[in-house]
Amino acid sequence: MRFDEAYSGNVFIRSHPSFEESEAVIYGMPMDWTVSYRPGSRFGPARIREVSIGLEEYSPYLDRELGDVKYFDAGDIPLPFGNAKRSIELIEEFVDKILKADKFPLGIGGEHLVTWPVIKAMHKKYPNLAVIHIDAHTDLREHYEGEPLSHATPIRKASDLIGPENIFSFGIRSGMKEEFEWAKEAGLYIAKFEVLEPLKKILPKLSQRPVYVTIDIDVLDPAHAPGTGTVDAGGITSKELLASIHEIARSDVKVVGADLVEVAPVYDHSEQTANTASKLIREMLLGWVAKRK
Asked: Which residues bind Mn(2+) (predicted)?
């Protein structure tokens, strides 16, 4: 994919026209080939861009506005429908190019399996990588009904690559008993049900380390984010998730990349989920990318 001109479709609000001059690159990963419940997250990236036009460019949380950071919207990666293996390869190749240019990759999913190839690319550049995983689900299965390429497996795959002790999961409230037992034995940190308070305790341990942050929108309670494929009652509020993004911004961890996944517009009749996701991306840009200056 070319980076020498702006994406011809809808772009995230205030995106910069030049890849070379930008500090971050927004890109979509429109894939939902392996979902086990409700499909539709492949339409998430496009809808999040469309509703971003309604965002205020100023963040009263961070006292910054989108004009303070240059980011390029590269559009969606063209992925072969139904081919998970090839899609994963293409995502990794795409992120490799972003990292080679020393840009901050900010991905929009898509199902959560898309995070796996991104972490593979990130680990090549940052061997000491740690991952902050914010989600309702453990995503620690080795396979789902015999299929190793599944949205239920990305964090297990990541742990096999970078070591389970380098993964920190927050907000988890769903998963197989065996997944929780494996995490405990392997040394993978899981904070059940909550995000902000346990995050405050972990961030000092990640001081000065390169950190990749992956956020599954279903960490939010369905009352706050109905537009997702696998809704799960008992989640956190959007206020807590925003506060968690800001807590990471205030820390001295080095966020080197991030993604937001699993927005499924077909179930989002009020567009509440897409609008929330758009605001979260604004705060990630202003809190994590602007901080790199």
From this structure: 112, 135, 137, 139, 216, 218
